[in-house]
Amino acid sequence: MRLKEDPMRNDQTKPAYNLQIMTNSQYVLGYSLMQNPTDTRTLIPFLHQLDQNGVLGREIVADAGYGSESNYKYIEDELPNCTALIPYSTMLKENSRKWRSDDRKVMNWEYHEADDYYIDPYGVRFNFKRYAYRNDKYKFRRDFKLYQAEKYDENHQVIPQALTPRGNIKSIMVNPQWEYFKAKARESLLNSNTYSRRKYDVESVFGNLKAYLGFKRFTVRGLKKAKRQIGIALMALNMKKMAGRPSSYSYNFKKKGRTI
After folding, report:
1. What is the pLDDT of residues 228-246, one digit of tens each?
2. pTM here?
3. Bridge partner residues of 21 (DSSP)
4. Cα dihedral 246→248→253→255 (10° resolution)
5. What's the half-sphere exposure (Cβ side, CA atoms, 13 Å) at 46?
6. CA distances in angstroms from 203 to 11, 22, 47, 180, 200, listed in the order given
7. Which residues pair with 127 in a beta bridge?
8. What residue ranges define each of the domains in the chain, with the CATH number in brackets?
9. Phi then psi for 112, rounded to 5 degrees?
10. Nearest CA to 74 among 225, 98, 63, 82?
């Protein structure tokens, strides 16, 4: 995989694994070691594993690297009792002034839901023409709605803004399901304060793994052996955290000592 440890920035690859963990109050409740370098493709099998083990919580909190249409769809269809608090990659950019003032973004166009058509900043109307779909390289199907610009005005004159530089009629494709999931993600994150705790809950575990245990690389080869090694290391972190946590007996004893 391509790692960050590349001082020459010549895109070198090294043997590595992608570690996925689920935490609660910095306790590791589940982990998985995968050979896929992208986090987007690791979420569904990891959630399936956690659900099978009965440790999956009601709120699934992850960073923007996991926000994809396939992941949102899986959580809604297969995990209806869970709430996805996962932003998508362009969520923060959409709130910027530059994004909202960009006339090329369809989300900034005027939309008429009753007749199902868009009007771009130049006044060109884009009418719904047909449905379309695309399959990505992982065979996930994305359904689109194709809108085509009106070529002629009321006087049957050609509208220059409705044509491309080559003279073809302009068209746009809108993914209604993706827009629905994005709107749902924005609403869920706006009404929850859980996402703000993600950084110091999850990232602290990786920091402690390197700082306290000195675990920066595997000393064994093979996925099966590497899973066992990282499992022991994560178990040690949980035990260290439990050992440093004051028990209810010691807390009551100190409390009584202060009141005497």
Report:
1. 999 999 999 999 998 887 6
2. 0.86
3. 31
4. 90
5. 24
6. 25, 11, 19, 30, 6
7. 117, 148
8. 18-89+188-248 (3.30.420), 103-174 (no CATH)
9. -110, 105
10. 82
